[in-house]
Amino acid sequence: MVRVANDGPGDSQTLPADTDDVARLRALVDQQRALLEREDEVHRVLVRVVLDGGGLAEVAAAVAGFFRGAAVVATTDGRVLASAGALPEDRSPLELDCFDRTGRLLVEDEPVGRRDTGGRADPSRAFVRVVAGASEIGVLGAFSPGPPFEAADVHMLERAATVAALAVTKEQAVAAVEGKYRAEFLRDALAGRAGDPVDAASHAASLGWDIDRPLVVVVAETDENDAETTRTAEEVRSLQERFVRAWTQAVRARDTSVAVAGFSQEVVVLLPVAEDADADAVLRPVDQLVRVVRGDGGGGRRTFTAGVSRLVTSPADLPRAYDEALTAVHVGRQVDGGSGLAHFDRLGIYRLLALVPESADLRRFVTESLGDLATDDAPENADLRHTLSVLIDTNLNVAETARRLFFHYNTLRYRIAKLERMLGPFTTDPQLRLTLALALRVHRMRGI
């Protein structure tokens, strides 16, 4: 110990010499100085991003550099808006288990702050909210292959989230203005008010769209009826904007020249396809887009039904194609009960059935035609309806029906006899067979 005299008379003050306590104090001071220097570096980098007019990609790159790893910026429902950096072995953060198979961040499973598993800090990632005013507009995440995240790291991530909020707000404002003009033009084109095909294609080109090529009209409409919802108007508007942004992002990731715009409860996409493409070839890319937008349904995403038109080769045919896509949506929702994907050419007899204005008439037709099979009062009714449907689809080919249903031949013969006792001699009466085929299809229409 070292004694130091006080300024006043009397006792002297005892101070520690260069002991372990002093060493620990010096280490703490050095640590704090290093943290302050790092915060100062983070501040300089973020200010430079702002002054240079940087966007989300620059923010993500800066955060990835801070932690010598990777970073992502995502919407509140988990759609990744920007990412940067990589993890060891050149792995993308999108390969981690906190993302689903479509690349959506599982925001509902990721806590804000350091990732905690079983009471232990997980060194791999940390998340903070991106907030503008009183609204949460996204999530910023960092992934580090190095030391575990500490509270100071989360604090720095929150400072970066402030800059990310500026970038998101700016991009949303620009997108809102651009989206307004694009939506107005697309609405005119779908209503046949965009002028002759040459003028329409020229105007679309000035907006960055190519509509002068073979394409189909895709309409995605939310299953929830906003006119009858209990949500507030602000919440409905926010949900629809999120829905439009999801489709816009998915489409632009595929092709920036594809026309896409959102209306009240729907999004319309003019998707280019090969001129000789059949319905299956058309549905494949549409289904890919639907999967990306839908994700796994988490993160507050709303369900929707999508409809696809026939091929058009001229902007003049867009109104007809738009009507076909809307029909596919509405009939598809009646058949599948929502969350489906339907092509106009695949609607078949359902197009005709959907034109019947009074559902009570169709329900009565089903009851009169199928009798007890119209209900599920008996456990075997659904199974018998399926057997009858396959029989009719195979044109009463017993061998083929037995193969499809994995029944023994004699078992199927027994079922046919039972169905005829319940419904009549449909195996010999073609008119009865037609009636039963229609009744089965009406029964499948959940909207009836």
Low-confidence stretches: 1-5, 118-123
Number of domains: 3
Shape: elongated
- At the fourth level of CATH, the homologous superfamily of the largest domain is Reverse transcriptase/Diguanylate cyclase domain
What is the spatial order of strands in the main beta sheet?
4-3-7-6-5
Largest sheet features: 5 strands, antiparallel
* Rounded average pLDDT: 86
Give the helix tally: 13
C-alpha end-to-end distance: 92 Å
Strand content: 15-25%
Name the helix and strand elements from N-terminus to C-terminus, one letter apiece.
EEHHEEEEEHHEHEEHEHEHHHHHH
CATH classification, class level of the largest domain: Alpha Beta
Q: What is the structural class?
A: alpha+beta
Structure description:
The protein has 448 residues and is an alpha+beta fold. It has 3 domains: 150 residues, 2-Layer Sandwich (Beta-Lactamase), CATH 3.30.450; 162 residues, 2-Layer Sandwich (Alpha-Beta Plaits), CATH 3.30.70; 89 residues, Arc Repressor Mutant, subunit A, CATH 1.10.10. It is built from 13 helices and 12 strands. A 5-stranded antiparallel beta sheet has the order 4-3-7-6-5. Strands 9-10-8-11-12 form a 5-stranded mixed beta sheet. Helix 1 packs parallel to helix 3. The chain starts with a strand and ends with a helix. The N terminus is likely disordered.
Topology (SSEs and partners):
Elements: E1 2-5, E2 12-15, H1 20-51, H2 56-67, E3 70-74, E4 80-85, E5 113-117, E6 120-132, E7 135-143, H3 151-190, H4 197-206, E8 215-222, H5 233-254, E9 259-262, E10 266-272, H6 279-294, E11 304-308, H7 318-336, E12 341-343, H8 349-353, H9 359-370, H10 381-393, H11 398-405, H12 409-423, H13 430-444
Parallel strand pairs: 11-12
Antiparallel strand pairs: 1-2, 3-4, 3-7, 5-6, 6-7, 8-10, 8-11, 9-10
Helix pairs in contact: 1-2, 1-3, 2-3, 5-6, 9-13
